[in-house]
# Entry
Amino acid sequence: MAETVQLTINGREIEAEKGKLLIEVARENGIEIPAFCYYEGLSLQAACRMCLVEVEKTPKLQVGCTLPVAAGMVIHTESPTVQQARKGTLEFLLTNHPLDCPVCDKGGECELQDMVFRYGAGESRFTERKLHVPEKQWSPVVFFDAPRCILCYRCVRVCNEGMGVNALGIAERGVRAEIVPNHHDYLECDECGACIDICPVGALTSGIYRYQTRPWEMNHVGTICTHCADGCRTTLGVRNEKIIRGNNRDRSGINGEFLCVKGRYAFDFVEHPERLQSPMLKTGDGFEPVSWSKALEIIGGRFAEFKKAGANFGVIGSNHTTNEENFFLQKFARQGLGTNNIDHHRTGDLATFFDALSGRTDALATVSDLYTAKAIVIVGSDLSQQHPLLANQIRANVRHHGAHVYTLTPGPVREEKLAVFTVRLPGTKQDLEALREKLKTESDVTMVFGGGASQHGMRGFIGMGDSLGIPVKYICLVDYSNSRGAFDMGVIPRDGGMCLEEMLGSTDLDVLWVVGANPLKNATLASEKAFVVVQDLFMTETAKRADIVLPAASAYEKNGTVTNVCGEIQKLKAAIKVMGTKTDLEIMGLIAKEMGLNLGIWLPDKVLDEIRATVHGYNVPLPVITTGGAAPTLPLNGRVAALPGSIASAGDTLFTSGSLSRYSKILNSIIEAPGELYADRATPRPVLPGEVTPA
Amino acid sequence: MTFSPNLEEKFAKMLAAYPEGRKRSAVVPMLIYAQDETGAITPELIEEVARRCEVAPLQVDEVVGYYSMLHRKPLGKYHVQVCTNISCMLVGGTELYEHAKKKLGIGNKEVTADGQFSVEEVECMGACSWAPAVEINYDFHHFVTPEKLDKLIDGLRKKQ
Ligand code: SF4
Ligand code: SF4
Ligand code: SF4
Ligand code: FES
Ligand code: FES
# Structure
């Protein structure tokens, strides 16, 4: 326990850790010291003077955001002198501020507006003409309105420190000082929008949200991002069945306020003009819209006939649908259709991973472990590109706790800049020994295995972890929002079923049912006779081959749960409804009904009950997830049989999202070339030093 | 970009002087010394300093924008800096500055046609006790009067 001191704030006796910043001590005790430039988790700036406080026996007002508390201090945070000073500070901040609150995006949730309101600094003694600078567009998503800026440096710091991108700076000085982007008049960066979100005023605005609405006219729906496996919680701002904003300002969820470009902006695929809104029946060489009842009747009837005839079914599930949908789908396949031919596009070798960790209950790292681990080993992944949240956690850990990062990658990655030890794969046996020796000096380790980590590699590294004699936790990276859930729910070819490639390759397949996947993007279906049913948002390559296509709801339009890359279960909440679509769960339930099958009630909560009762590791406390938290699953204990079929990382970057990215105008409008990514489909899987099994 | 051997040696020493991971501390001195050699701070120089100090070029650009003694355009061989801040102003700094401009026939931060002189109005240089003060390149001149300034400038002209 650190040394504590007694002090008095506004007449209240308070005990606090010695040397802690006054602003933090006050906040912990429910006393608000206003601040613009101070921002939790970022370096101190002391630029705005909004946090001035009176410290008895100190002649001048003190800056609360950089003042360490000491024994016996007597502090007043709202005395008349302090209030006067704040009013003065605000008057200065407003000298060039345009006061265009009525048309400003931030109006209603602006920190400056709140403060001016509180301290009554609405009148100015300045009669000079205000300095005006026209608004600038820096990128498709970032706009800057200089006169509104109060030069708090939050954006600069969040980009430098938080994102590690260093894209923003300040040019000139005094009244002419202005935030500038890295390429003078345009930005080349991650386009994450963190700078916009953190801006206390409306100086930085987003291309998607600007001038769309007033904040109080939206409904705010907390759900989970559907773009990658990290599972960031995002609060969607919805007005008139339209999503207009994504952010996480309330810092709920595992990601705090972090979101990458996809989570923050790429929700626009839901309203893409090509979105399917009616079931489509193949007629000759085209499709024609049919009613839901007709479509379901045809599918139910054909499925029942095929089943009776003992036909060959193939079922391909999704990386994006909910746990409930995946569970229901595999139940449908196994119990309803009597087939084990079920698979999905697997993006990480979870089978080997779970098998290597069988019998353990404490070996799975969570997203928050990456923020607290003393040492992190990254094997074969470009985290900043493929797992933005995990990369963010690691950066924050290095910044706040000085974690040691070790990278073993086939190409350059951003994390290398933070690393204490790097290996360019394929490495040598000596590299591995050096790594082991270094790791021995750590007190705990978290290892992250990327899509490049092959079976042997993964087992080798887990063996190395075991030999260290310190607590070691692991993460096996998978790519999509519910890749992990699809695996856990059993959308895998267990018990002798055909894997995805086998289904596509079989000339004998009678039925192919594809729920939310696009396996024919780069492949063909060998069986010409197969009756194909596809549930999807768009007319994908696979949907084009279908006999019937059903318009499905996206993750932002459904309730249910998803499991992120670390095995944490979180709840989706429907934000909007898209006319004509149904959730995949409802579609499956209705097909079952047509077939006269009894597979149980197809309501998300009911299916979740069944999952909690039957799926290993999923008996998680309901209150945690229903209140918006993340509940970690337990690792499977017991051995897991090897599965047929291949595993391939999707090779997505920060600006792509599998088959969804082509339907997001925003992602397509961003100019940044996808960053350097070695793990794309074209390059063969690198040989890991782990294949030289560590002795 | 390479500099003279002397400067290179200076930079090497400088970079080694700061603790591990604090190379950015060398940004300001590096810029000043490099400017003396190259005459002005070019985009190329910014890139170079950023590379050596392991920061983003934008972060060097910020420093250049902030410090008035860092210049993006070449100055005259003799850069005449006249203080017009309060102490100097009270004893004729402003008049001195006006005089300097007239004498050289140029405005603030401009360079004479022959490239020999430039003039700049500057803030307090810490020479208040000897106000009004003028700094020409790195040399301070105290209690400067218009006549004294004329002499100084003429002397420098002759020196060429
Ligand atoms: S969008 Fe993100 S990466 Fe780009 S400048 Fe803003 S904070 Fe930096
Ligand atoms: S743009 Fe916003 S966040 Fe950045 S310095 Fe200005 S007010 Fe602060
Ligand atoms: S890191 Fe992944 S889950 Fe988080 S916002 Fe980005 S795409 Fe979505
Ligand atoms: S919050 Fe303390 S100076 Fe800005
Ligand atoms: S005011 Fe001129 S040197 Fe100080």
In short: The domain at 5-66 of chain B is CATH 1.10.10.1590 (Arc Repressor Mutant, subunit A).
